[in-house]
Amino acid sequence: MTKLRMVIPKGSLYETISALLRDAGIEFTTRERGYRPVVRSEDIEIKIMRPQDVPKLIEMGSHDIGFTGRDWIVETGADVAEVVNLGLNPVKIVAAIPENQDLSALKDRRIVVATEYVNISERYLREHGYNYVVLRTYGATEAFPPDDADMIVDNTATGRTLREHKLKIADTIMESSTVLIANKASLEDSWKREKIEEIKMLIQAVLSARGRVMLEMNVPKDVLDSLVKCLPCMRSPTVAPLYSEDGYAVKIVVERDEVPNLIPKLKKMGATDILEYDIRKVVI
User: Nearest Cα to 156, choosing from 170, 148, 10?
Assistant: First the structure.
């Protein structure tokens, strides 16, 4: 049986991606310290690997599709196809130095730069004219300055960890988020390409639904037109007459952050029995 081979990242990205896949309908179970989950779908197999390794594994064809950060695609120089940018786990890759250090003074001498991003760092340092030596790290990069490094290149979401270690951001090198990538040869296979497109659609439907809710309400006939005109919705609201009553049931899908202001407004305009529902998927 033909199978689509998927690799998902371990570590901090794992919970995000596994929840996304389950919401998309791709169910699997993982044994403790296991790297090969049991997948309910017979035409999909999954392996769990480090996000750093995913881009090259996809490029080599060991797997058809996989999830990783764009930063690791750039770092490894992997030749892969980006299927969709999920926008999840956004981070910045930054150059950071001790908070009492003058950045300009670092160009007057040879500096030690600690990082997991060796290629990204060297490209940045060359372009900015530094005299440097790069020290590859394997986690806890922020602990190296000031004793063991003059600068670090690392990822950060909020900058809190840097501040806790008395570091400041000297420059932002790039921005990154989680992407779904594919092996280019796999996309030439008609069955795999169709399967990948189906997964992309389901994932996008889940992500779209997370930012929206459904509102359902009863609306008197005499205020229907004025109320509908002010409704924010994806397309047009669903309106149906109420049984044996002079009014209508109205359904809309709206952005979640609009709800706190919208519900009081609807109530004032005459809507009653307002219900709010979470939705699982939105396919446009």
Answer: 170
Same structural domain, 98 and 164: yes
Residue 231 contacts by C-beta under 8 Å, 6 or more apart in sequence?
A: 237, 250, 252, 254
Considering the domain architecture, whether residues 21 and 55 belong to the same structural domain is answered as: yes
- The model's pLDDT over 218-261, given as tens digits with 9 standing for 90+, comes to 999 989 989 988 888 667 889 999 987 789 999 999 999 999 99
* Tokens coding 220: 């008197």
Written as six digits, the tokens of 49 are: 């690997």
Handedness of CA 52, 53, 56, 59 (dihedral sign): negative
Structure tokens that stand for 15 in this block: 């919970």
Q: Which helix (H) or strand (E) holds 1?
A: none
CA atoms of 76 and 68, how far apart (whole Å): 12
Please choose, from the candidates 242, 188, 235, the residue with its C-alpha nearest in 3D space to the C-alpha of residue 218: 242
- C-alpha 55/C-alpha 7 separation (Å) is 10
The predicted model scores a pTM of 0.86
Number of helical H runs and strand E runs in the chain: 8, 14
Residue range of the domain that includes 238: 211-278
pLDDT tens for each residue of 19-75: 999 999 998 888 777 788 888 888 999 999 999 999 999 999 999 999 999 999 999
Do 147 and 129 lie in one domain? The reply is yes
